[in-house]
TrEMBL record:
Region (Disordered): 67-106
Provenance organism: Limnohabitans planktonicus II-D5
Cross-referenced InterPro entries: TatA/B/E, TatB
Keyword set includes Cell membrane: yes
Domain of life: Bacteria
Protein name per UniProt: Sec-independent protein translocase protein TatB
Family: Belongs to the TatB family.
GO terms for biological process, alphabetical: protein transport by the Tat complex
Keywords: Cell inner membrane, Cell membrane, Membrane, Protein transport, Translocation, Transmembrane, Transmembrane helix, Transport
Length: 155
């Protein structure tokens, strides 16, 4: 690239100051800076685009290799399955055909798990307390003691 030392930069600055003048020099410097920034952004965008296209080509090659590997695996599975079916047919050809068929066991019921955290957290505790919803179970003795009518003081 260009070999610009401090002395060369100072010389360029002095010549620009003489040619352009002190009034217009800041405006020209700002314009030159913005143009240089735009050029740098353009160059970086071009580099990024080239890198993306190279990555895209690599991904296309990788996709092709994966597809070919998948096709190979599919072919081997098909050949293995056909070989297995031939062997199975040869093995079962000598068996009597009046054997009872084995039935699979009936499906059994599986209770779905309830999400107790969701059920518990659906209503806020402060709302339950304000509306009088019981959040804790009371034993029989505690319930009797709590709801027993107060004795009337006969005076």
């Amino acid at each position: 690239m260009l070999d610009l030392s401090f002395s060369k930069m100072a010389l360029i600055g002095v010549v620009a100051l003489i040619v352009i003048g002190p009034e217009k020099l800041p405006k020209v410097a700002r314009t030159l800076g913005t143009l240089l920034g735009k050029a740098q952004r353009y160059v970086s965008d071009v580099k990024a685009e080239v890198n993306r296209s190279m990555d895209l080509e690599e991904l296309k090659k990788m996709k092709e290799t994966m597809e070919s590997a998948a096709r190979d695996v599919e072919q081997t599975v098909q050949t293995t399955a056909s070989d297995f079916e031939k062997d199975w047919a040869e093995t079962t050809s000598g068996l009597p055909s009046d054997l009872p068929a084995i039935e699979p066991p009936p499906p059994y019921y599986v209770r779905p798990d309830k999400n107790w955290r969701l059920k518990r957290g659906a209503v806020p505790q402060w709302y339950k307390a304000r509306s009088g919803v019981r959040t804790k179970a009371l034993s029989g003795a505690a319930r009797v003691a709590r709801y027993r009518p107060k004795p009337l003081n006969s005076v």
